[in-house]
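Record 1 of the preview.
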Amino acid sequence: VQLQASGGGLVQAGGSLRLSCAASGSIFSINSMGWYRQAPGKQRELVAAISSGGSTNYADSVKGRFTISRDNAKNTVYLQMNSLKPEDTAVYYCNAEVRVRSYRPADEYWGQGTQVTVSS
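->
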């Protein structure tokens, strides 16, 4: 199973970016999908997550600005980021809990990370 993230870049404060992450490989089903970020010198933190049924949760710092969504038919999760702030600058990683067989529990997989830089 591979997770391929895309959509990062450089944007001015107040701008928007949309991240995408597609899961591929031998996939039976995907439970939760999410986005984490890690800024220099800081621990990796959860940004947003979405369940297979569409329930979402967000870090307090991004509520009202970021929106997570997923396309189950495409095994893809998205993160729409609006009103970006310099403190949103980080490497963003996608994450998914994937079952590769019906009889196996889900394993956790990570994407390669995509850099988001917000200039002031």
